[in-house]
Amino acid sequence: VVASPTPAAAVAALPPVPAALRVIVTNLPRHTKYRVVRATFAQVGTITRGGVVPDPATGEGTGAATVCFATEGDAESAVAAFDGVAMGGQPMVVRRQAAVPRAELLSLKH
User: How far apart are alpha carbons 22 and 86 in whole angstroms?
Assistant: First the structure.
């Protein structure tokens, strides 16, 4: 019997997604689940993967998520359609990943 890889190992084995296909969503309520983010963003394009960014200390959401799209056009459509739109009573900030400085991503505290 071959054991299935752990979720973290399975994700690590995936090929990297080009930055042009990735979108970062911030200012989400901390309790937001990825299934809600995915359902929202699937309205504008094909999603290949993504997830809610967890706090390393608690494992709870940080109020940020990543969404990876099949095409650059889908990623651009997501920014145009959802930047400033409320989710859970808060306006989302939606940017292409290349436009978000790494230091900002690492310091996300909602």
Answer: 20
